[in-house]
Amino acid sequence: MLLAHVVQTSAAVAATRSRKEKVAALASLLRRLPVDPDPLEVEVLAHLLGGSLRQRRTGLGWRGLRDLPPPAEVPTLTVLGVDAAFESLASLAGPGSQAARAAAVAALFGAATAGEQPWLRGVVTGEVRQGALDALVQEAVAAASGAALASVRRAAMLAGSTTRAAVAALTGGEEALAAFALEVGRPVEPMLASSATDVAEALAKAGGAEGREVAVDLKLDGIRVQVHRDGDDVLVVTRSLDDITARLPEVVDVVRALPAEHVVLDGEALTVGPDGRPRPFQETASRTARRGAEAHGTRVTPYFFDVLHLDGRDLLTAPAHERAAALDALVPAEHRVPRVVTADPAEAARFAREAVECGHEGVVVKSLEAAYEAGRRGAAWVKVKPVHTLDLVVLAVERGSGRRSAWLSNIHLGALDPEATAREGEPRFTMLGKTFKGMTDEVLAWQTERFRALEVADDGYVVTVRPEQVVEVAFDGVQRSTRYPGGVALRFARVVRYRDDKVAAEADTLEAVRAHLPG
Ligand SMILES: Nc1ncnc2c1ncn2[C@@H]1O[C@H](COP(=O)(O)OP(=O)(O)OP(=O)(O)O)[C@@H](O)[C@H]1O
After folding, report:
1. Pocket around ligand 1 at a 6 A CB cut-off
2. Where is the active site (predicted)?
3. Could you give the domains of the chain?
4. What whole-number distance in Å separates Cα of residue 408 and Cα of residue 462?
């Protein structure tokens, strides 16, 4: 397939606001594939449609792509040819590699047309939006392959990758999709929690109100970890499935010591003080953000709350009480999340109160009947947090003044607008307010660099950025407002932390913000 077809489709997707038309454009591109397509070609194509390359590293950056050769007149580049070029670029190393890289870039970009050059550069530098397209690509794959959308989605969750699901659907149809199961060593999308304002509401949602017992877990404020052990090999990934094994040797040690050879566990890792109280989240975050930080002090401890596989037994579809029994038998109590199992709302409320008094974030109420629903945010897990925070997206940032004049300071906050997002097939946001509170000098320095990298415009005062950075903010309340387009504004918003484990499409919605309006 010619790259030109991909670039045209990408332009068509960007040009229409209709989700249906976007999916149709993507599906008609996929239908250009031969009846029995080469799996590699499908894989490359699925990556390109999501705005990424199969190669994680190419050794290329903006600088190497600033001066491009004159474009080709006629499109000749193919999807597989482009992939081969990046494959050989990725393997360049050592003396002479810089000149070889420049020559390879000149050859590749010289063969690209005027329309293809900027698109290809955008893919290499990560500027063509990723992630947001995932859901559209899944729909298009279902339409083009004839497989059910639910099967494509299920496979993508289990594989932790839309690309792998696309290859399976387009080369082997329903049968290949059905073959996806949890594999030890291959991360799955984590199960997520919905929210309730208090424990009674959470119990009702998770089925506990009908007198059935539910589990009430401590909600620990660390980072989500999914751990796979296959013999001596251990893999630790974050909520966004990034590999952080090398940064958490303590977690690896704990899992290697368990009496099981093949296991997949889900939990939270955090730093705890000698008094047993959780340390501020920043300590865990700084440990997981930098390799080698473990040498300087703080220890991170894993607390597991679920087991998805145990020595040949796939537990994903087993009810939660069965998984809990397996977890209790496998993991010592000091590495399990504390929980009570109860049908009594008063007991659950007492546990939640004590959790907060001990410095934890709150509780997660869980149905004991539910399967592990990879990638889903449903009623089977319901979180209750007394301190309200929202995960919003930074839309712009203002230059600081006075003491902050060297930094970008006041951030503009946006909530996800689901209607506009659905209509346009990519995340859209509504501004809710601004804040310059809660930022340490370290955070100010970090955000200045980060937002300069995301900059799309600078009028000398306000720097507009690509809406990609998620920030968790605390606030005192939400009020009606005529100043902002969503009709609501935050009162006394302050930054709690920047979140790199969430993409913008996962930010809180305008609805979630409005739910905090009084009355
Ligand atoms: N006992 C627990 N069970 C499940 N999740 C827990 C538990 N303790 C802490 N957590 C954390 O809470 C999160 C569950 O909330 P949710 O699925 O909404 O994710 P989130 O959007 O990252 O939430 P939050 O911002 O509240 O941490 C998990 O991702 C996990 O990191």
Report:
1. 192-193, 217-220, 224, 239, 268, 305, 337, 364, 383, 391
2. 219 (n6-amp-lysine intermediate)
3. 3-179 (1.10.3260.10), 192-384 (3.30.470.30), 388-515 (2.40.50.140)
4. 9
Token duo for residue 111: 């063969």
Element (H, E) at 320: helix 320-330
d(C-alpha 293, C-alpha 238), whole Å: 17
Q: Is 268 annotated as a binding residue?
A: yes
Give dist(CA 91, CA 97) in Å, integer: 9
219 is catalytic: yes
Distance, CA of 410 to CA of 176 (rounded, Å): 50
What are phi and psi for residue 197, nearest 5 degrees? -85, -25
The atom number, within ligand 1, closest to the CA of 218 reads: 1
The active-site residue, picked from 22, 205, 219, 434, is 219
Tell whether 494 is in a known binding site. Answer: no
Q: What is the pLDDT of residue 291?
A: 55
Neighbours of 113 (CB within 10 A): 17
What's the gap in Å between 299 CA and the centre of ligand 1?
A: 21
Please write the tens of the pLDDT for every residue from 60-97: 776 778 788 999 999 999 999 999 999 998 888 888 88
Pocket test for ligand 1, best of 191, 224, 390, 391 (most atoms within 8 A of CB): 224
Token digits of residue 24: 């149709």
Residue nearest to atom 27 of ligand 1 (CA): 221
- The pLDDT > 70 percentage for the chain reads 95
pLDDT digits (tens, 9 = 90+) for 404-462: 999 999 999 999 998 888 777 778 899 999 999 989 898 999 999 999 999 999 999 99
What is the 3-state composition of the chain as percent helix, strand, coil, each rounded to the nearest 5?
40, 25, 35
Query: Which residue among 219, 307, 372, 381 has the greatest number of ligand 1 atoms within 8 angstroms of its CB, and so is best to mutate?
Result: 219
pLDDT digits (tens, 9 = 90+) for 353-367: 999 888 888 999 999
The pLDDT score that the predictor gives to residue 257 is: 97
